[in-house]
Structure formats: structure tokens, C-alpha cells
Amino acid sequence: MTTFLSALLAALAVSLAIEAAEGGSLRPVSLRPGDLAIRLLSYALLTLFWFAFSWRPWLAAASCVLTVTGLALVSRLKRGVIGEPLVFSDFALLPQVPRHPDLYYTRPVTDPRIGLPLMAALALIGLWFWLEPTVLPGGTLPALGSIVALPLLLAGLAFAAERAPLAALAARRCPEPDLEADIARYGQPATILAYLLRWRATRRPPAAPALPAPPRAGHDDVLVVIQLESFIDPTRLGGPALPLMETVRACANQYGRLRVPAHGAYTMRTEHAVLTGLDVRSLGFSRFDPYLSGGGCEPTSLARLAAAAGFTSAFVHPFHRDFFQRAAVMRAFGFERLVMEEDFADAPRIGPYVNDRAFGRRVLAEVEAARGPLFLFGVTMENHGPWKPGRLPGLDDPLAQYLHHVVHTGEMVEDLVRGLAGRNATLCVFGDHAPALPNCRPGFGETATDYAIFRFGRMEAPPRDRVDLSADALGRLLRSSWAPSGASVAVPRS
């Protein structure tokens, strides 16, 4: 027991010092007794968790310290690229990392730069097991009882944490998400655990059945909404003017900056906001990954409203079905037809992903093939990061790679404008988030991308001045396509 207590105290002290050093003056460690107690308790739980695997106190203490160090380092890296620390929902994405390592700026485990350190770490753990004696009690039955009892104790704590009074304590301490403030108060491990508990306690119940069909009002036969990967006006990055942007200013019925819920990543946040019209703040702890709670089970999603108004619906995305569980989520949103990577098997690629212009041709082919009113939601892929050496021949600079791809994005949108002209159609395009480039770090443009709405085939009001919106406001504006006659949709200006 003395050995365990000594190791535990060392783990608490070193972990506290690590988080204090990482936070520095930006996130000073709260020394209020209640805040400090929660922080130290999270370190103790980490130590007990690792202790249950080894029954070696100093190995458990070292594992706790390494866990805290790893969380601090990953959070620092994530803040630098995305402007947000590590959060509980990030762990749900871990199964995707080995399947799509490039998308997460890492390498496969078969790469020696990853595999060799992993093997060395496993060898070190094995050596430590051999050098440090176990503190299991003597005798077979006492040892087996201890091995079973500690995991049961931890499982019991997890069970109790979701019920009163511990759940009420979590609700008092973290009533709403405030990541940076809560990490400063309670530390990264405690905040991850508390947010997980709050998410489980507050996530929305399964959605109600779809709403009754509203009367069809507009004259559109086609509504095409395209989410452009990492798209912003390249002049904002110091790049050359894109012809598309002049087309937008001259021909779009509405355009402007689009405030999105994240910088450099988390496509699903913007996607969810547009498809549901829900303000991210209304999602509570589900805001970090809206698809974790109910997937696309929103009865008033754009796809369901389209179906209720007599439209067929299609989702077009030239990438894996399993990424973000997109296929399952889009089915839950109500999309009837999915056109995904296997449908682009013969499409040309630029770098690792399908060419945006090939994507645009497929969108127009879906419009041509439709036998009635169509709602199509598409997500491009060509300009997805990371932009790194070897992606494009002769272009190793990340910004140069991005600007090369964004030209194709602009050409694709212009192809759509020409292809839909003359139809009773609406085209909406928008960027999901700014690119995570070295010259486009968090804080750039207040997480704003660009959007535009084109209307074809009927008399419309003349093009309007720039109107800045949030992603959810854009989603509510698009809902007016199926509003009952005479209804209006209020969309606030920024």
C-alpha cells in the first residue's frame, strides 16, 4: 500500500506540473479547492485504470503521466491547426485513423516511423513488467479476487457517474460547453470525462416521425446544394482572383461570407447545420459531433422536407461510405439515393481525390436523369487536406497546392451554373470550413467561408448586395424552397 500511495502521489504531482506548464499564463491552473480536487481525482482515476492492467504501481503512475502528456500535446497541436483543444467526441473518430491515416496527418502502422516506435514502446512495457514486481496479494484466490474487484469498482464508478448525485455534480460544474475555461479549471482528462457524461445525459432522444407533407409552393424543379471542401475566396489567402467570384458577384441572387462552426476541420458540423437549420448552440454537448447523437435523424432535414414536397433526393460524395459514417447518416437524413466512391471508380483524380470537375459532371448527369423534381446535396473532395510534398508533381508548397485545386472547384461551379441555366432550378454552393494551411490558422476570418445562391429559369429580383449568414441560417433559408405559399423565412443578417 505504501508503494502504491507513493506512486500515486508522484503521478498526481507530475501530471499537475505538466498541465500547468502546458497551459502557462493562457490557461492557468485553477487552485480553488473544488476545481483542484476534481483535477487530481481525474489523475487518480487514470492511475487506477492503468493499475488494473498491470498491478504495478510505478508502471501505472508512469502510464498516467504519459496519458496526461499525450493529451496535452495533442491538444496543443490541435489548437494550432483547428483552434480547439481535444474533446471527447474526437475519440469516436479513432477507428477511422488507421483506415484513412492521410486525412489525420499521420501514417499507417506499417510505416517504420510509426511501427518501430510502437514496437519499442511495447518492448519497454514488457521490460518494466519484468523489472517491477506486482503488488497482487499472495495466494491464488486473493489475487484473482483483486484482479476482478478493481475493474468492477471502476465500472461501478462509471455507472454511478451517470446517476445522482454525481450526474448532478457534473451538471452544476459543466452546465454548458466552455472548453477552454473548463480545461483551465479541471484539466484535460477531467473535462473529457465530464463532457462525455454531459453529452450522454443531454443528447436528444430519437427523432419523431417525419412531418406531414407541406403544400409544394416554389417553382423549382431542381435544388442543388454543393458543400465545397475547404473553400474560401483565394484572394483572402493572397492568391489570384478566381473567375468564379466575379460570376458570383455578377449573377448570384445572394452571396456573402458564411460563418461556420469550426476552422480547418469538422465538416460534419457545417453539414449538419445546413441540412437541419439548427444553430450549433442549440445542440449543447452534441455540437462537437452532431452525428454522434442521432446521426441524421432529424424529421425536418432538407431531404425529408424535399420528399414531403414531392421531390426525390440524392446525396453525391466521391469518397468512402464509412467516413463519418456518411452513408448511414445520409440515409437517416432521408436521402433516397447515394452516389459515392464506388460510382466514381473511373473518374479522373487530381492528387489523391476525385477531380471536382468530374464531380460536377456527375451532378449534372443526376439532374439530367431525374424523372421529376430533384433535391441533390453534394460534397466535394478534391481540395481536402493535407497539402504536403508529393501530392502534386512539381508543387510542394501547401498554399500552391490549395490554389491549384481551388481553380478546379471554381470551374466546377461555373460548369454547374451553365448546366442549370434555363431550368427552373436553384444552385447553392458554400465552403464547409477554411483550409488548415500554414497561412490560414485559427482566427482567420472568424471561421467564415463563402457562399452563393443562383436562381435560374424564372423572373427573380435583381442580384442583391452581399449578405453574410451563419451556416444554420443558410439551412433555414433553403427551407423556404418548400415553405407553404405566402410563407416567409426570416434570415438575420450578420
Note down, in words, how this protein is organized.
The protein is an alpha/beta fold and 494 residues long. It is built from 17 helices and 10 strands. It has an 8-stranded mixed β-sheet, sandwiched between helices. Helix 2 (33-54) packs across helix 3 (57-82) and helix 8 crosses helix 9 (188-202). It has 2 domains: 2-202, no CATH class; 222-482, Alkaline Phosphatase, subunit A. It is elongated, with a radius of gyration of 26 Å. Strand 5 (349-350) and strand 6 (353-354) form a beta hairpin. The chain has helices spanning 2-23, 33-54, 57-82, 96-99, 112-131, 140-161, 166-173, 179-186, 188-202, 243-251, 267-276, 290-294, 302-308, 326-333, 356-369, 398-420, 471-479; strands at 222-228, 254-259, 312-316, 337-339, 349-350, 353-354, 374-379, 425-431, 448-456, 469-470. The chain crosses the membrane at residues 36-53, 58-77, 114-131, 143-161. Residues 1-20 form the signal peptide. Residues 223-438 form the Sulfatase N-terminal domain. Keywords: Cell membrane, Membrane, Signal, Transmembrane, Transmembrane helix.
Structure, briefly:
This protein has 494 residues and is α/β, with parallel strands linked by helices. The chain contains 17 helices and ten strands. The chain folds into two domains: 2-202, no CATH class; 222-482, Alkaline Phosphatase, subunit A (3-Layer(aba) Sandwich), CATH 3.40.720.10.
